[in-house]
Each structure stands twice: as C-alpha cells, then as structure tokens.
From TrEMBL:
Residues 902-923 have a biased composition (Acidic residues). One of its GO terms (biological process) is mitotic spindle assembly. The gene is WBGene00098714. ATP binds at residues 96-103. Residues 883-895 have a biased composition (Basic and acidic residues). This is Kinesin-like protein.
Length: 987
C-alpha cells in the first residue's frame, strides 16, 4: 500500500543505514527441563551469550531467564512504535526453536492479552504495541489518523487471512506483490485490512486470529505453532500544517511470530506433521539463505523462494527498521537448536537496512502521482498491444515472437502491475473514501457529540449545582451543628449560672437562717417591749382618766361651789339689798340728821371713810387674788395632768424613737446580713465559676471531640465532594479531550465516541449513583447526628428548665423565708407602732377632751364671773355713791355684817397703808393700828356671820373689792376677760 509515497532518507535519530537489531532472550527452564543442565549464559552488559564454550556477542540486547516483558518492550519495541507513527515501516519478528518463548514474547502469557500493558508482566509485545500506538495517537492533537490491522498466517507456503470469516474460501486470492512505486516494498492483497479504533479492537481481532491459527501438538511443545503469523498494523496519519498543507504519513508495524525452527527428526512430527515441519524449515531455510545473501553482499537475494522471505523482503535489507528477537532454551538438550538459532541470529545481525520514512505528501500530489503512474502503465500496455498486429519476416517474426513473448510477459507483468496499482489505488481511494466517510460521519458525530456535550455540560452544570447545593446543605448542616453546639454551650452556661445562683441562694439562705432567727428574736423582744409599753400605757390611761375625771369633778365641784357661793352671795346680796336699802335710808336719814353735825368734822370723817373704802377694796382684791390663785392652782393641776399626758406621749415617743432606732439597727443589721450574703454569694460565685470553668472545659473538650468528629465527617464529606468534583472535573476534562480529538479527527470513529460517551455516561451515572450512595450513607449519619444534637439540645433544655425550676424554688424559698422573717419583724414593729400611735392618739384625744371640758368649765366660770363682777361693780358704784356715815355707825354696821379680820391681816393691811406713804409717827400708827384691828375684827365677825362657805372662798365683799380694784387697775372689763383668757391659753 501507499506505493505512491516517496521515501526519503531517515531523520530524527534514525540512521540512514542500520543493521538489523538482534536481541537474544533465554527463557527459564520448564518442568521437563528441570533436571537438564543449563548451558546458556547471558551477559546483558557485554551483550553476549555463552553456550558451553561458544560465545556469541555484539547483540543489540541479551536477556536472561529473569527478563521481563516490559523490559523487552521498552528496549526493543517502544522506539519502533514511535518510528512507525513518524512514517517508518518497522518489523519485529521472533525467531527460535519451538517452545523457546516466541509466542510468549510476541503475544504474552495465557490470558495476558487483555491485561494492562504497563503493569501486567504477562503481556507481550503485540498488545503493548497496540496500546502504545493508540495512547500516542490520542495524545497527539491536530491530526487525523486511521489504523488498520491485518493478520495473516503462512502455513505450508500458503497465506491465510486470519481475520476473514472462517467460511470464506478466499485464501488463494491472497497475493504478495511489490509496490511498483516503492521498490522492495511488498504489499499483501486480498486480505482483510480492518480499521481499528482502539486497543480493544486489536485485542478482539488478535483473539479472533489466534483462534484460527493452526496449532499442532508436538512432542516438544503442547501448543507448538507450526505456522508463521504476521500481524500488520498500518497507521495513516493526516496532519494539517500551519501553512495550510495537508500532510500524510504512513507507517507500518509488522509483528512476526515465526514457527519453530527445530529439527524435524527431533520434533517427532510424522506424516502431515513432517510435511509441516518441512515446509516450515523450507521457509526458514529460505529466510536463512536470504539472510546469508544479505550478509554476504550476494547479487541476488532469493526473496521469492518463500512466501515468508517475500513478505519480509522490505524488512530484511529493505527500508524497514527491523528487530529480530531470537529465543533460546537454556538447557543442554536443546544445545544444537540453540547454537543454530544463535548462529542464525548472529548472521542476521549483519543485515543492513536503509530505513526510509514514507514521504509526507498531500492528497493532491498523491492522486497526481497515481494518475501519472496509471497513465504510464496504460501507455505501455497500449503500445505493447499495438505492436501485436504488425507483419514481420520469419527471423524478425521469431525475434519478434520472442520479443512478443517477452512483451507478453511484460504485458502480463504490466497488466499485473497495473492491476496491482489499480488495486492499490482502489485501496487508497477506498481509504480516502473511507476517510471522507469517516470524516463526514465524524463531522456529524462531532455535531451530535457537541450537542451531547452541551447536554452533558448542562448536566454537568446541574450536577455541579447539585453538588454545590449538597455542599451548601452540608455546610448548612455543619453550621446548624455549630449553632447547636453554641446553643448547647449557652444552655450549659445558663445551667451553670443557674446552678451557681442556686448554690449562692442556698448558701445565702443557709447564712440568713441564723440572722433571721436573730431578727425574729429581736422582733419578739420588740413585741414584748411593745406589749409592755401598750400595757403600761393602758394601765396609765385609767389613772390619768381618773385623775382627769377627778380634776374635772373637782373643777366642776369648785365651779358648783363657786356657783353655790355666788348664789349664796346673790341671795345674801338680794337679802341684803332691802336691809341695805333700809339701812341706807336710815343712814340717809341719820346722815341727813347728822349732816349738820358732821359737817364740821366732815373732812376728817371723809378721810376715815376713804380709808374704810380702801380697806374694803383691799379685802376684795385679796379675795380676788385668792380666787385667782385657786383657779390658777386648778389650771396648774389641769396643766400638770396635761403635762403628765404629754410626758406619757413623750415617753411613748421616746419608746417609739427607741423602737425606730432598733428598727434602724435591725435594718442596718439586715443590710449587713445582705452585704455579707452578697459577699458570700460572690465567694460562692467564684467557687461556682471555678466549677463552671471545669465543667465548661469538660464540655468544651466533649464539644471539641464532637466538632472533631463533625469536622472529620465534614472533611470526609468535602473530600467526598472533592472526589466527586474531581471525578466530574476528570470527566469534563476527558469529555473535553475527547471532543478535541473528535473535532480534530475527521475520520470515523463515531462508534468509539458513542462508546466513550456511553462510558462517560456510565461513569457519570456510576459517579452519580456513588454520590447518591455516599449521600444516602451520609444522610442517616447526618440525621443521627442531627438527632443526637437535638437530643443534646433537648437534654440541655431539660437541664436548663430543671435548673431554672430549682433556682426559682430556692429563690422562692430563700425569699419567702427571708421576707417572712423580715415581714414578721416589720409587721410586729408596725403593730407595735400602730398600738403606740393609737395609744398616743387616744391619750391626745383624752387630753383634748379634758381640755375642752376645762375650757367649757372656764367659759361657764367666766360667764358667771362676768355676771358676778357686773353685780359687784354695780354694787360698788352704788356704795361709792353712798354718803359717808358716822364712823361709829359704819363700825356698827360692819360689826353687824362682817367678821373681824385676823391680826396678821390687819397687820398686813396696816403695813400696806404705811407703804402707801401715810405720814404718822410710830405711836400714832400703833394706836391707829390697834384701833383698826379692833374694828376689823369686829367687822370680820359680822362678815363671818354672813359667810356660808369655808375659809377658802372670800366673802362677796372681798370679791367685789378685788374685782373693783382690778377694774380700776386695768380700766376695762374686756381687758380683764381677755387677760384671763390669755393666761389660760398660756397655761
Ligand atoms: N521468558 C519466559 N518466561 C516464562 N515462561 C516462558 C518464557 N518463554 C516461554 N515461556 C513458556 O514456555 C512455553 C512455550 O512458549 P511459546 O509457546 O511461546 O513457545 P514458542 O516458541 O512460541 O513455541 P512454538 O514455536 O511451538 O509456537 C509457554 O508455556 C510459555 O509460557
């Protein structure tokens, strides 16, 4: 294929001429060989193999029994795969005796075909190469590519397409021909060249081909392959250059698993098997000859001697990069075969190739080239045919016959070539059509995929939003849990405070109890004092009342007496008035008769009369004074009784004051007690604060644990979210990558895309399911945690309520007891005060009542006195108007009417008279005094006869005299009344 591609010298590290690389691999001995001696020694550093004494060196690589598949691949194949992708043809074939590990090296151990090429040690070169090619291709951007796979078997010099359906009988159609445009490049026609889109396609086809391989059991190996298998992976890469040119690269990787190279005789093959072995050896012998010819610079290389050599023409001495892996058995039994293989390999090592890269050309050039080629061939064909109708002489004819024969051969060759070229072209066209078809499909698919991608992106966005919501929900849950924690903390704080207050109250209560007891005792004492006081007051009130009553009674009596005396006086006056009138008349008469007689002595007699009058006035004044003093004494007594009441009131006030002081003391005690309680409360508070801190620390620790749990949960959730996000991101990236690739590759692998999308969808579904599962796993945990938090909160609430209730109870009890004791003390004090106030009020009322009674008495007395005074004044005035009588007469009259004054009175009066400035000598005065005393004594006798009452009250004349004197002194009646009133008020 791709004969139109020009070859150009190698570049990029591939030498222009390079020897076929030969590596030796020695497998480990199998069970059968366990007792056999190991004769093959490998030196990887020296790259030499020693078998007995024979040393084979300068190999590309040498691997011992413990070599690893991955090692082989990295050293021998990896670079070639990269070269294939750059446009080189590369061949790797395994050569060796049956059962030495050719298939193991090329395909891998049992079941290894589906293993991961990078990790699975069983995996052989073919699966690794397939994986590697697709990994590299998918990693490249800006290219389109198509990968095709053909798998043929050469068995008994027959080529069999291992990928065609087993029923088809088209094996004879498979031909090998040289690419006319690329000399030496052998093309296999008539085989299925199946496009593959991924590693799995390769595996599937490999499996299919392997099943078709004919294997026969030989004595040497149970599954000894009697055929050569050739797997070809062609890669066509179309690349758009920045210049706008379209470049096409085509590389080919041939992986050949040769049949065993053992001796027929030793293999034990018989009959058909022997034929097989022979054919096998024919091919291998031809291969040997080719190798010999190549290494000895022979003019002819017998590629055409066998299908195998024909097929490997390009790989041996051609433009391919070739690696041979010669496999060996390590044991002595296989010595000959091992030596043969080593010699074979050593010879092959000298084959020189000229690796050429398949020149990058654009599509137009490719067509042009093919067209030119076809045209040329057609021309040649036509020319050849045209010549066939010309008549020539015999010799010339014979010559021409020969020439015609030659020409016919050439024609047939050209026809063959033309046919091959046409087939190639058809193939290329088919490739291009296929590519275009793929491109169109891919374009449509890309569109569809873009739409799907948009949908996926939307879904992804939705999923992201869902995740974000979930995250938010988680965040909210975390926050809610945080709030719950803070609520719980608050609840605990409150509970602690409540506890503290409760304890404080309890302590305070405990401390207040004795204080309350003391207060109660004081209150009891106060009550007793109060009771005592009220009792004493109650006791003192009746005597006071009695005293008052008595005084009132006395006053009344006195008033009554005064009234009686007044009445008596009035009566006496009334009695005396007619007698007096008569006496006055007689006296008038006497006076008249004696007027003349007395006129001489008028002046002296007048003087005596004035003296008598003044004596009378003095007597009246004395009586008045006596009365006043009596009244004053009554008033004083009243005042005294009033003072007594006042003293009692004062005492009570004093008591009250004491009680107030005691109350103040009590209050200050209470305050002190409260201050002490507060202090104690503070102390208890500090203690409780400590305990609370301890409790809080404990709580914080527990909460921290809880939070740690929560955080780990949340972090696991977030990591889960991140994983999901990463998964999503990965999916996004994968989708984007896929889309990029899809956008860039116009060839059809829509199915792959579908599959990828399906896979992605599945992945997303899986991821969603996983997320759901995780969420569903998390939800019960969350709900249980929420439940726990709720329970916790509820418990805290209950605790808080309990504490609150307890606190209220304690407070109530405390307050109740405290208040009860205080209120009882206060109520006892209040009751005492009330009693006291009541007593005071009663006393004051009693006093006021007494006062009003006395005032009433006074009013009455005043009225009577006024009346009396009026009478006395009138009488006095009337007496004053009476003309002076004869002294004797007067004396008689007085003797008749008045009791004689006592000596002291007379003496006092005489002294008064002396003080009044009378100028008499001492003898005269004594004489006169005696005379006056005599007179007065006689007068008083008269008076005594007139008087009814005792000595306490003065005679009416005295009273009159006193009153008269006072009137004279004060000058008016009103002033006297007001003066007395004033004095009473003052009292
Ligand atoms: N390097 C190795 N390490 C472990 N086992 C190996 C190795 N090489 C070969 N074997 C084992 O040896 C046996 C024969 O190997 P294999 O079939 O690959 O030989 P072969 O050369 O392909 O034989 P045939 O020519 O008959 O196809 C297999 O069971 C294989 O697993």
């Amino acid at each position: 294929m791709m004969s139109a591609m020009k070859k150009k010298p190698t570049n990029s590290g591939v030498p222009a001429r390079s020897n076929v690389a030969v590596a030796i691999r020695v497998r480990p001995p199998n069970e059968k060989e366990a007792k056999d001696s190991l004769i093959v020694k490998t030196d990887p550093i020296d790259r030499s193999v020693t078998i007995r004494n024979k040393v084979f060196s300068n190999f590309e690589r040498v691997y011992g029994q413990n070599s690893r598949q991955s090692e082989i691949y990295k050293d021998l194949v990896k670079k070639q795969v990269e070269d294939v992708l750059r446009g080189y043809n590369c061949t790797i074939f395994a050569y060796g005796q049956t059962g030495t590990g050719k298939t193991y090296t090329m395909e891998g151990g049992e079941g290894s075909i589906e293993g991961d090429w990078e990790t699975d040690e069983n995996t052989g070169i073919i699966p690794r190469a397939a994986q590697h090619i697709f990994t590299e291709l998918t990693a490249k951007t800006g290219i389109e590519y198509i990968v095709r796979l053909s798998y043929v078997e050469i068995y008994n010099e027959e080529m069999i397409d291992l990928l065609s359906s087993p029923s088809s009988d088209d094996k004879h159609l498979i031909r090998l021909f040289e690419d006319p445009a690329k000399k030496g490049t052998i093309v296999i026609s008539g085989v299925e060249d199946i496009p593959v889109r991924c590693r799995d396609d390769v595996y599937r086809l490999l499996k299919q081909g392997t099943e078709q391989r004919r294997t026969a059991e030989t004595l040497m190996n149970k599954q000894s392959s009697r055929s050569h298998s050739v797997l070809t992976i062609s890669v066509l890469i179309r690349e758009s250059l920045p210049s706008g040119e379209e470049l096409v690269k085509q590389g080919k990787l041939r992986l050949v698993d040769l049949a065993g190279s053992e001796n027929i005789g030793r293999s034990g093959a018989e009959g058909k098997r022997a034929k097989e072995a022979g054919n096998i050896n024919t091919s291998l012998l031809a291969l040997g000859r080719v190798i010999n010819a190549l290494t000895t610079n022979a003019p002819h290389i017998p590629y055409r001697e066998s299908k195998l050599t024909r097929l490997l023409q390009d790989s041996l001495g051609g433009s391919s990069i070739t690696t041979i892996i010669a496999t060996l058995s390590p044991v002595n039994t296989n010595f000959d075969e091992s030596v043969s293989t080593l010699e074979y390999a050593h010879r092959a090592m000298n084959i020189k190739n000229r690796p050429e890269i398949n020149e990058n050309v654009n599509k137009k050039d490719l067509f042009k080239e093919y067209s030119g080629q076809i045209e040329r061939l057609m021309r040649e064909l036509k020319a050849a045919r045209d010549k066939s109708g010309v008549y020539l002489d015999q010799e010339l004819y014979d010559e021409m016959g020969k020439k015609i024969e030659t020409s016919e051969e050439r024609i047939s060759l050209l026809e063959q070539q033309l046919e091959d070229t046409l087939e190639l072209m058809r193939k290329h066209l088919a490739d291009i059509e296929l590519m275009d078809d793929y491109y169109g499909k891919a374009y449509t698919r890309v569109r569809n995929l873009e739409q799907r991608l948009a949908l996926r992106v939307e879904e992804l966005e939705e999923a992201k939003m869902t995740i974000a919501k979930e995250k938010q929900a988680h965040e909210e849950t975390r926050r809610a849990l945080g709030r719950c924690r803070s609520h719980a903390e608050e609840a605990f704080t409150v509970a602690e405070e409540t506890k503290k207050v409760g304890w404080e109250a309890h302590h305070e209560l405990m401390r207040l109890h004795p204080r309350c007891d003391a207060i109660g005792e004081i209150a009891n004492e106060n009550r007793n004092v109060s009771l005592e006081l009220s009792r004493s007051i109650n006791e003192s009130i009746p005597p006071m009342r009695e005293a008052n009553d008595l005084r009132m009674k006395n006053g009344e009596e006195k008033v009554k007496e005064a009234e009686t005396a007044l009445n008596v006086l009035n009566e006496a006056v009334a009695e005396k008035i007619p007698a007096t009138k008569e006496s006055i008349d007689e006296a008038n008469e006497t006076m008249k008769s004696l007027l003349s007689r007395l006129s001489s002595i008028h002046s002296s007699h007048n003087e005596n009369a004035q003296k008598e009058t003044s004596l009378l006035v003095t007597m009246i004044r004395k009586a008045q004074l006596h009365l006043e003093s009596t009244i004053d004494s009554v008033v004083t007594q009243l005042i005294e009784s009033n003072d007594e009441g006042r003293i009692k009131v004062e005492e009570m006030e004093h008591q009250n004051e004491i009680m107030r002081k005691e109350m103040d003391q009590l209050r200050s005690d209470c305050r002190e007690a409260i201050a002490t309680a507060q202090m104690k409360r503070m102390e208890a508070g500090e203690e409780l604060e400590k305990k609370r801190n301890q409790f809080k620390d404990e709580m914080e620790r527990k909460t921290k644990d809880m939070m740690n749990m929560m955080n780990s949960f949340v972090s696991s959730m977030s990591s889960m979210g991140e994983t999901i996000e990463e998964g999503q991101r990965g999916q996004e990236e994968t989708i984007a990558e896929r889309m990029n690739q899809m956008g860039e590759v116009e060839m059809g692998w829509g199915d792959e895309m579908d599959e990828t999308c399906e896979k992605l969808k599945n992945m997303m579904n899986e991821s969603t399911e996983k997320t759901k599962d995780q969420i569903s796993t998390c939800l019960p945990i969350l709900s249980s945690m929420g439940q726990k938090t709720e329970d916790y909160g509820r418990k805290s609430e209950i605790d808080r309520e309990d504490w609150k209730k307890e606190r209220e109870t304690i407070e109530e009890e405390c307050r109740g007891k405290h208040e009860l004791s205080l209120s009882s003390a206060l109520s006892s004090i209040d009751s005492l005060k009330e009693t006291h106030d009541k007593t005071q009020v009663d006393t004051v009322a009693a006093l006021e009542n007494t006062k009003s009674i006395i005032a009433e008495s006074w009013k009455e007395v005043d009225g009577d006195m006024d009346k009396l005074m009026k009478i006395v004044i009138e009488e006095t005035e009337r007496i004053r108007e009476i003309p002076p009588k004869d002294v004797e007469q007067v004396q008689r009259e007085f003797q008749d009417n008045q009791s004689p004054p006592t000596e002291e009175e007379l003496f006092a009066e005489s002294e008064d008279e002396v003080e009044e400035g009378e100028e008499n000598d001492e003898n005269d005065q004594q004489k006169k005094f005696k005379e006056k005393a005599k007179l007065r004594r006689s007068n008083f006798r008269v008076r005594d006869s007139l008087l009814v009452g005792g000595d306490d009250l003065q005679s009416p004349s005295k009273l009159i005299g006193m009153r008269g004197q006072r009137i004279e002194e004060e000058g008016s009646e009103a002033s006297f009344g007001s003066d007395r009133t004033n004095r009473r008020t003052n009292n």
